[in-house]
Specification:
Number of helices: 3
Helix content: 25-40%
Structural class: alpha+beta
Radius of gyration: 30 Å
Largest sheet: 5 strands, antiparallel
Number of strands: 5
Order of helices and strands: EEEEEHHH
Number of domains: 2
Shape: rod-shaped
Strand order of the largest sheet: 3-2-1-4-5
Strand content: 25-35%
Length: 147
């Protein structure tokens, strides 16, 4: 563990800003940051590694670089969020399908759109299996269907 004693800007390399960093143990080297203000400051206790070119990689004390994606943190919260997204997709699909029928001159009550959305939702959540071959191809008596 070392303490940073100075940070001096030394230019830019591509989209990164270069800094010379000095430590209380007498060592120094070049670091890179994505902004003009690096994520460490004079006085910070850090651990660092230095390669043969003199480039230093700094890790602040107590900081662990184990990033977890925001949606992967809690399985319980994800289930509710996932179901909410599926429900929204089901409703959007039902509305789009109904709009296609309406554009062909059909009239579809709002209740039917919600029923269709519930069917889509159940199918996407594997709560309802698709229709059998016989059910799917059974004669239909719907007059508003363009097919």
């Amino acid at each position: 563990m070392a303490k940073i004693t100075s940070i001096t800007p030394t230019g830019q390399w591509n989209e990164f800003f270069k800094f010379e960093v000095r430590f209380d143990d007498g060592d120094f080297g070049t670091t890179f940051a994505k902004s003009t203000t690096p994520p460490y400051a004079v006085g910070d206790d850090v651990t660092y590694t230095k390669n043969e070119k003199g480039t230093i990689k700094i890790q602040k004390a107590g900081f662990q670089n184990n990033y977890t994606a925001p949606f992967a943190k809690s399985a319980a919260g994800n289930d509710d969020r996932g179901k909410s997204i599926i429900r929204q997709v089901a409703l959007k699909s039902a509305v789009e399908m109904s709009a296609a029928y309406v554009s062909q001159g059909a009239t579809i009550p709002v209740e039917k759109i919600f029923e269709l959305a519930d069917k889509f939702n159940a199918w996407m959540l594997n709560e309802q299996k698709g229709a059998s071959h016989e059910e799917h191809f059974a004669p239909r008596v719907e007059e508003s269907s363009p097919f």
